[in-house]
Each structure stands twice: as structure tokens, then as C-alpha cells.
TrEMBL record:
Residues 21-81 form the HTH tetR-type domain. This is TetR/AcrR family transcriptional regulator. One of its GO terms (molecular function) is transcription cis-regulatory region binding. Keywords: DNA-binding, Transcription, Transcription regulation. Residues 44-63 bind DNA. Pfam families: TetR_C_11 (PF16859), TetR_N (PF00440). Residues 1-22 are annotated as: Disordered. Coiled coil: none annotated.
Length: 223
């Protein structure tokens, strides 16, 4: 007869990394939901912790302030949106998201700005984005981190694409790409933030055309 132990079978040790990732994801979701519902000023670490079902100290172990939590959550949200919008046939499966380079600058810029329109009009993205952008106007630290951690890395994608266009001869060599990108990015941001007009594909297509070709007559009319 086989010997049987009175000891209960040992359960496998909990996977702390899996538990941490689950908690981190819950905190992201809670932070984005709260800033959407009550705005940035009324969002607190305590509220995020309660909503996420974690202890306040868990949040403070990973982040020093609610601004850090919200910015990281928003960056993660933006990264997911960029990954969902990326076309594997253009940038490669699993590749880091970049503005496509098909050799046609106009088409590539129109494509990425249309994806931006989709993102700006997505309620999941729009509410926390507006809350953080508005807070950044009155809170210098939040504004600086919002620009440095989220906006500037995205703008550098445009810089890289415009520099490639310069190398291909599609953009003048003396153009500063960092200034040039503002011709189509800044009007879109202003219209979105101030509700001065509809955000549409047609609008962003026109921004690209005006930025690339200017306002002077073209073709026979130019003569």
C-alpha cells in the first residue's frame, strides 16, 4: 500500500510579476476613468487606489504623484492606440510605430493625421487628453511633463519623416523639420482644443496640402 502524507499538496507560489502587472493595469484604468469623470483637480491618489482596488502605498511605490500616474497611464493609452493604428505592411509586424515612408510624403502625412483624427475623436482618448492638456496650461510641471514625455516624442516622428523626405529631394534642404511640422500639427491641435471647427479627414488633408504646397497659385495659374 502506497504511503500517503497527511500534508496537503503545496500550491505554487504566486507570480508577483503577474500580480504587479495586473495592479498596474488596474491603476492605469482607474486614473484615466477618474480624470474623465471628475477632472484633474479632483482626481487623487486615494481615489485612484480605491477605484483600482489597491493600497495607496502600492501607487506611491511606483509613482511620486498623481501627475506621474496619469501621464504614464495616458502614454500607455496612446501607445496602444498607435499600435492599433499601425499598418504591419508598412512598418513591419511588431515594429516600433513610426510614420510610414512609402516615398509619397503627402500620402504618408495624410494617413497619419487621419489616424490622429480618429484618436482625438475617440472618447476613451479625448476626455483624459483634454483634462491633462487643460491642467498643463495652469500647472507648469504637468505641462512640461505632458510635452516632454508624450508630445515631443510623437513630434519627433514627424521630424524623422520630414528629414527622410529632404534626403529624397521632396522637401527643401534648408527647411527646419521641427518648425515645418507645426504647419499641420498646430492648427489641428488648436481646433481640437478650442472647438473652433470640426475635426475631419478633409480638414487634415487640406492642412497637409497647404503646408506642402503653400498658398501661391500652381500650374498654369502661377504664370
Amino acid at each position: 500500500m502506497a504511503h500517503t502524507s497527511d500534508q496537503p499538496p503545496q500550491k505554487p507560489a504566486p507570480d508577483s510579476s503577474r500580480r504587479s502587472e495586473k495592479s498596474r493595469r488596474a491603476i492605469y484604468d482607474a486614473a484615466l476613468a477618474l480624470v474623465t469623470e471628475v477632472g484633474y483637480p479632483k482626481t487623487t491618489i486615494e481615489g485612484i487606489a480605491a477605484r483600482a482596488g489597491v493600497g495607496k502605498q502600492t501607487i506611491y511605490r511606483w509613482w511620486s504623484s498623481k501627475a506621474d500616474v496619469l501621464l504614464e497611464a495616458f502614454i500607455d493609452l496612446s501607445a496602444q492606440a498607435a499600435e492599433a493604428a499601425a499598418r504591419p505592411e508598412v512598418i513591419g509586424e511588431g515594429a516600433e510605430y513610426e510614420i510610414p515612408d512609402t516615398g509619397d510624403l503627402e500620402a504618408d502625412l495624410k494617413l497619419v493625421l487621419r489616424s490622429t483624427v480618429d484618436e482625438l475623436l475617440d472618447p476613451t482618448f479625448e476626455a483624459p487628453s483634454r483634462a491633462l492638456a487643460a491642467e498643463g496650461v495652469v500647472n507648469e510641471q504637468v505641462g512640461r511633463e505632458f510635452v516632454g514625455k508624450l508630445l515631443e516624442p510623437q513630434l519627433q516622428l514627424y521630424v524623422k519623416r520630414l528629414r527622410a523626405a529632404q534626403e529624397q529631394g521632396a522637401v527643401r534642404a534648408d527647411i527646419d523639420p521641427r518648425i515645418a511640422l507645426e504647419l499641420f500639427v498646430s492648427p489641428l491641435a488648436q481646433r481640437w482644443l478650442q472647438y473652433t471647427g470640426p475635426i475631419t479627414y478633409e480638414y487634415t488633408d487640406k492642412l497637409v496640402e497647404y503646408a506642402l504646397y503653400g498658398l501661391a497659385p500652381r500650374g498654369p495659374a502661377a504664370r
